[in-house]
Design goal:
This protein starts with 13 loop residues before the first helix and ends with a helix. The chain is α/β, with parallel strands linked by helices. It has a 6-stranded parallel β-sheet, with helices on both faces. It is built from 23 helices and 18 strands. The chain folds into 3 domains: 10-185, Rossmann fold; 198-356, 3-Layer(aba) Sandwich (Rossmann fold); 367-538, 3-Layer(aba) Sandwich (Rossmann fold), CATH 3.40.50.970. Mean pLDDT is 92; it is low at 1-7 and 566-604. 54% of the residues are buried. The protein is globular, with a radius of gyration of 25 Å. 34% of the residues lie in helices and 14% in strands. InterPro entries: Acetolactate_synth_lsu (IPR012846), AHAS_TPP (IPR039368), DHS-like_NAD/FAD-binding_dom (IPR029035), THDP-binding (IPR029061), Thiamin_PyroP_enz_cen_dom (IPR012000), Thiamin_PyroP_enz_TPP-bd_dom (IPR012001), TPP-bd_CS (IPR000399), TPP_enz (IPR045229). It catalyses: 2 pyruvate + H(+) = (2S)-2-acetolactate + CO2. Residues 14-127 form the Thiamine pyrophosphate enzyme N-terminal TPP-binding domain. Its EC number is 2.2.1.6.
């Protein structure tokens, strides 16, 4: 295909080649915000009506929406931005996608090639800036390279451990005439699943065969292997822990499920890790919020670690049996080698059942009770997104996911403002289910402008729930427990907007609840409204999230329930209390003295 000599056609330019390439790769929805340096691309978009563009209100909102699309579907998310501030506004989302292994393609415009390096208007070295937070990035030097670069970028974003790739296209390259044929736009064939080495598989099988107290820990890298992981657990009768990113990879209704591990994990999950003799980790990276004090993580266990990324094997915890392979391939192979008679493990399973009954079960009105009432209304196919903070941990603790990709959150980067635009992306990907977001009053205000996106794109299946405790709740919790109750710059209440009026200004109806009874009534109106809607739940500020492992402590030193304030401390809530304050080490910061006093029932 070529432009005519007398009448250049934007369709047969670098910009047109971009859209033709995206269409050839099955992309039919993109998110973005136009500007001067990417204007030719938006001009060419008018000739590709089969591709839907969702106009956000801020580039960060657009990239989080693209992440939400990708996390809900497992497919590529695509976002566009202009040069300079438009491109730099994508950096947080790129870092978020990198840490959470999200397949994402970011396309930015740049100033014309001859202006690059001259500090031209709205110029930024976006490839240099984003080098640490992308799997790969490109600056396209000629229009003829566009199809090849897009094919390579999408292949890289999707292959192996997924991640974000950025393609930067100078304005003159977008405008330049370009010849391309259908064959030039052909996607790269997907890589075959990586199979485990026989020796590694044999070593894993030997450890599982000898195990008396095994536990499986499943992360976000196994979401697409949920069926194989479930079959493996049943064949070997192994209890399963799902990380924050792995929730849904194993059905929560299964008796073998122990919950989430780590800083705000379940008692059963953290105790199981501390007492297991074999830990089989599949598709996770053993990050600090999961391990607690690394040297005391799973102290009695031989660790099998299955991951596609060789860099993760042995990076954080010592791994007795590293297996670099596709999660589904390994789970399938281990299941096929399971003993003909399923191991019963009565003592181990009985102990786990006792631990399942322990933890924090508040009976008074607060954020935990509010989140429990809200998530109880989710259907099995509905999608729950969260922002970052106390409400995020409560939602992860209290929601029950029966299948993967129903839970979307910012795990590795912990990005406030993520939840609402991610719910928008998920809602567009799956318009026939409810896309619910639980946000805090702080985080919601970081991307609240995306309320306009609901109206502009006529999105009708987003349900926004704001848990309003008038504080930056998680920061307040740490300041209370670990910083002598010195509350520094965390109170929001006097400056918070009226969230119902804010929503109404964008044409979104709202409900408010201030206790359990009024919440039940508000939920009916909020969920039954035939369109997107907002629910504000006003809760006390002083309630915290437990169980909790203090920073620098081991999982066995978790606070199972909230310490009594004003010097009246609870006793008998924790096994194996620590002997004293640890000096700051390489793995985590020191255990705060107040947390240890609370654990031991001592005086402040």
């Amino acid at each position: 295909m070529t432009p005519t000599q007398d009448s250049p056609d934007i369709r047969w330019s670098g910009a047109g080649a971009l859209w033709a390439s995206l269409e050839a790769h099955g992309v039919h929805t993109v998110f973005g915000y136009p500007g001067g340096a990417i204007m030719p691309v938006y001009d060419a978009l008018t000739f590709f009506p089969q591709i839907r563009h969702i106009l956000g209100r801020h580039e960060q909102g657009s990239i989080h929406a693209a992440e939400g699309w990708a996390k809900a579907t497992g497919q590529l998310g695509v976002v566009l931005a202009t040069s300079g501030p438009g491109a730099t506004n994508l950096v947080t989302g790129l870092a978020d996608a990198m840490l959470d292994s999200v397949p994402l393609l970011a396309i930015t415009g740049n100033v014309a090639s001859h202006l690059i390096g001259t500090d031209a208007f709205q110029e930024a070295d976006i490839t240099g800036i984003t080098l640490p937070v992308t799997k790969h990035n490109y600056i396209v030097r000629s229009a003829e390279d566009v199809p090849r670069v897009i094919a390579e970028a999408i292949h890289i974003a999707r292959s192996g451990r997924p991640g974000p790739v950025l393609v930067d296209i100078p304005k003159d390259v977008q405008l330049a005439a370009c010849e391309y044929r259908p064959a030039d736009l052909r996607p790269h064939p997907p890589l075959p699943p990586r199979e485990p080495e026989p020796a590694a598989l044999a070593a894993a099988l030997e450890l599982l065969t000898q195990a008396e107290r095994p536990v499986m820990m499943v992360g976000g890298g196994a979401l697409d292997a949920a069926a194989e992981v479930t079959a493996l657990a049943h064949a070997w009768n192994i209890p399963v822990i799902t990380t924050l990113m792995g929730l849904g990879a194993f059905p929560a209704s299964d008796p073998l499920w122990l919950g989430m591990p780590g800083m705000h994990g379940s008692v059963a999950a953290n105790r199981a890790i501390s007492e297991a003799d074999v830990l089989l980790g599949i598709g996770l990276r053993f990050d600090d919020r999961v391990t607690g004090r690394v040297r005391d993580f799973a102290p009695r266990a031989s660790i099998i670690h299955v991951d596609l990324d060789a860099a993760e094997l042995g990076k954080i915890v010592s791994t007795h049996c590293p297996v670099r392979a596709d999660a589904a391939q390994v789970a399938r192979a281990l299941k096929e080698q399971a003993p003909s008679q399923i191991p019963e493990r009565p003592d181990w399973l009985a102990q786990l059942e006792e631990w399942k009954g322990r933890g924090h079960h508040p009976e008074v009105w607060g954020a935990a009770q509010a989140v429990r009432q809200v998530v109880a209304r989710l259907g099995p196919d509905d999608i729950l997104s969260s922002d970052v903070g106390q409400h995020q941990m409560l939602a992860a603790q209290l929601a029950r996911f029966e299948r993967p990709r129903r839970w979307l959150n910012s795990g590795g980067l912990g990005t406030m403002g993520f939840g609402f635009p991610a719910a928008i992306g998920a809602a567009l990907a799956e318009p026939d289910v409810v896309s619910m977001v639980i946000a805090g009053d702080g985080g919601f205000q970081m991307t609240a402008q995306e309320l306009a996106t609901l109206k502009h794109a006529d999105i009708r299946n987003v349900k926004i729930c704001i848990i309003n405790n008038s504080y930056l709740g998680m920061v307040r919790q740490w300041q209370e427990l670990f910083h002598g109750e010195r509350y520094s710059e965390v109170e929001l209440g006097h400056s918070n907007p009226d969230f119902l009026k804010l929503a109404d200004a964008y044409g979104v109806p709202g409900w408010r609840a201030e206790d359990s009874a009024s919440l039940d009534e508000a939920l009916e109106g909020w969920l039954n409204h035939p369109g997107s809607a907002l629910l504000e739940v006003v809760v006390p500020s002083q309630h915290h999230v437990f169980p909790m492992v203090p920073a620098g402590a081991s999982l066995s030193e978790m606070l199972e329930t909230e310490p009594v304030r004003a010097g009246v401390m609870q006793t008998g809530t924790v096994q194996d209390s620590p002997d004293g304050v640890e000096a700051p080490g390489d793995d985590m910061e020191a255990v705060p003295i107040m947390a240890l006093d609370a654990q031991r029932g001592g005086e402040r």
